[in-house]
């Protein structure tokens, strides 16, 4: 079943190395008679804007990942390890936000970006993506499983909440931090709707938005479309291959107090 799941990916890779005539010829062939070609990739990169779009996507996805992980980890620690008035109500509200589709927030978010003059800016793309209630919940549940004795020992030595979080909790939470970071990065990299709405300047477009405009301008060119899709997917595939152990470890240690 795993091998069958890879068939569409293998077909997309094969098509990306074909000429347009080979991609549309019948019967379909995995390996075309004339052999493979790099023409589609050369054409895509020759447009010039693709590399800028990829740089924009990397900048935005990286900033969203770092800021989201930092904010959600701090919020999750606050909910799981501190007691303050209204904590239960705020946490219940955070859980409730998970059920709200992001699409219904597009109009108020766009009005907010207009109010702070952030439309057609990097910050206009980044800021609305920093709110991730599900990640706050994941961090809160993970932190709540960490043995309380570790923090008690730190407080005996005079450590406050910040020092305990930074020196004790965060180091033993690296698996969940890595997993959340990877998931957030993938979501930000693939995000199409919000960057499409908030940016009009081609120099600020992300890779998914930019590639969609190329396809719309030139019609459906299957071989080049597949080449563009492979270019957009390659960084995510490499990222997952490099950090798949951290993802598995995060899932395996959930509920075991970070051990």
TrEMBL record:
<feature type="transmembrane region" description="Helical">
    <location>
        <begin position="122"/>
        <end position="140"/>
    </location>
</feature>
<keyword id="KW-0812">Transmembrane</keyword>
<comment type="similarity">
    <text>Belongs to the binding-protein-dependent transport system permease family.</text>
</comment>
<dbReference type="GO" id="GO:0055085">
    <property type="term" value="P:transmembrane transport"/>
</dbReference>
<keyword id="KW-0813">Transport</keyword>
<keyword id="KW-0472">Membrane</keyword>
<dbReference type="GO" id="GO:0005886">
    <property type="term" value="C:plasma membrane"/>
</dbReference>
<keyword id="KW-1003">Cell membrane</keyword>
<feature type="transmembrane region" description="Helical">
    <location>
        <begin position="89"/>
        <end position="110"/>
    </location>
</feature>
<keyword id="KW-1133">Transmembrane helix</keyword>
<dbReference type="InterPro" id="IPR035906">
    <property type="entry name" value="MetI-like_sf"/>
</dbReference>
<dbReference type="InterPro" id="IPR000515">
    <property type="entry name" value="MetI-like"/>
</dbReference>
<feature type="domain" description="ABC transmembrane type-1">
    <location>
        <begin position="54"/>
        <end position="243"/>
    </location>
</feature>
<dbReference type="Pfam" id="PF00528">
    <property type="entry name" value="BPD_transp_1"/>
</dbReference>
<feature type="transmembrane region" description="Helical">
    <location>
        <begin position="53"/>
        <end position="77"/>
    </location>
</feature>
<protein>
    <submittedName>
        <fullName>Carbohydrate ABC transporter permease</fullName>
    </submittedName>
</protein>
<feature type="transmembrane region" description="Helical">
    <location>
        <begin position="176"/>
        <end position="197"/>
    </location>
</feature>
<feature type="transmembrane region" description="Helical">
    <location>
        <begin position="217"/>
        <end position="243"/>
    </location>
</feature>
